[in-house]
Amino acid sequence: MKVSVITAVFSNKAFVKNAIESVLAQKNVDIEYIVVDGGSKDGTVEIVKSYGTRIHKFISEPDEGVYFALNKGITIATGDIIALLHSDDFYAHSFVLSQVVEAFENTQCDAVYSNLYYVKSSNTNKIIRLWDSGDYKKNDFYKGWMPPHPAFFAKRSVYQQFGSFNTLLKSAADYELMLRLIFKNQIQLEYIPKFFVKMRTGGASNRSLLNRIKANMEDRKAWYINGLEPKWYTLMLKPLIKLFQYRFFSYFRPDNIH
After folding, report:
1. What pLDDT, on a 0 to 100 scale, did the predictor assign at position 238?
2. Residues with Cβ < 8 Å from 90, sequence gap 6 or more?
3. Confidence at 236, pLDDT banded by 50, 70, 90
4. Model pLDDT for residues 47-96, shown as the tens digit of each residue
5. DSSP states along 83-142
6. From the CA atom positions of the chain, what is the Rg in Å?
7. CA-to-CA distance for 89 and 13, rounded, in angstroms?
8. Which of the pair, 204 or 230, is modelled with greater confidence?
9. Alpha helices in the chain (DSSP H)
10. pLDDT value at residue 35
11. Domains identified in the chain and CATH numbers
């Protein structure tokens, strides 16, 4: 099975190289690598172009944000599986995608998900916290659950059938996508209890109380636009569940990776 990896980037010359090289380092897997840039002027474009044909498709033009960029990539992807990797993120080791493909080939699943490390931006060997997804159980979305979308891998046919990111949403577009695919349409999931992605800390929705309130309002909208009704406690639990999903570590532990 071929994997289309899509990286969205805008003015991120400091970190985009890490993302690209983690994709190009993947072993034992057929990859189509797509990079979608939002019209960067800081040197990002030159870094991407320096990899030549190792990046199979490259788009650089102004857009309206990361979810627009990811949708562009999904539209032009030809792989059997879609992987989404932001320019701040990178794969934890060189066998991530081969293990993902193996899970697809050994099961009848529509999507695979795993776990994610949050790491210090200036020292990616230092783990700040863990997003330990756990096995999905029916109605876990009512309890605030969702998988990390950089560690979520779905068949291209899933996006063709159920759609990609809803760009009417800002901070909650990834949540709405997961809610729509997993909860509403009940795609078949396979969980790999391993840590496949490293993400640098600093998510926009958690930077201030005001941003968290705005994100909560968007989370509610994600339910309503799908004709769904959350429980009275669902949107309170969504940020609180992070206290249970994230375990704190001081330093990099290689035994957790493989």
Report:
1. 84
2. 18, 19, 21, 22, 124, 197, 198
3. confident
4. 999 999 999 999 999 999 999 999 999 999 999 999 999 999 999 999 99
5. EE--TTEEESSTTHHHHHHHHHHHS--SEEEEEEEEEETTEEEEEEEEE------TTGGG
6. 17
7. 13
8. 230
9. 16-24, 44-49, 66-76, 96-106, 156-162, 173-178, 209-224, 234-240, 242-245
10. 98
11. 2-256 (3.90.550.10)
Please choose, from the candidates 38, 63, 67, the residue with its C-alpha nearest in 3D space to the C-alpha of residue 167: 67
pLDDT above 50 (res 255): no
Question: How many residues belong to the chain?
Answer: 258
Query: Is pLDDT at 141 greater than 70 in this prediction?
Result: yes
Under 8 Å between Cβ of 214 and 171? yes
171 secondary structure, DSSP code: T
**pLDDT value for 138:** 85
Tokens of 200: 């640098």
> What is the four-CA torsion angle of 201, 206, 207, 213, rounded to 10 degrees?
170
Element (DSSP H or E) covering residue 155:
strand 152-155
Q: How far is residue 42's CA from residue 21's CA, in Å, rounded to a whole number?
A: 19
- End-to-end alpha carbon distance in the chain: 22
pLDDT exceeds 50 at position 252: no
Q: What is the pLDDT of residue 205?
A: 46
CA distance 76 to 55: 14
Query: Residue 105 in contact with residue 114, Cβ under 8 Å?
Result: no
DSSP 15: T
Q: Distance between CA atoms of 71 and 197, rounded to whole angstroms?
A: 21
Q: Where are the beta strands (DSSP E) in 38-80?
A: 57-60
Give the CA angle between residues 69, 29, 254 to the nearest 5°: 90
Q: For the beta carbon of residue 154, count every other beta carbon within 10 angstroms.
A: 26
Cα–Cα distance, 98 to 111 (Å, whole number): 14
Report how far residue 175's alpha carbon sits from residue 96's, in angstroms, rounded to the nearest whole number.
23
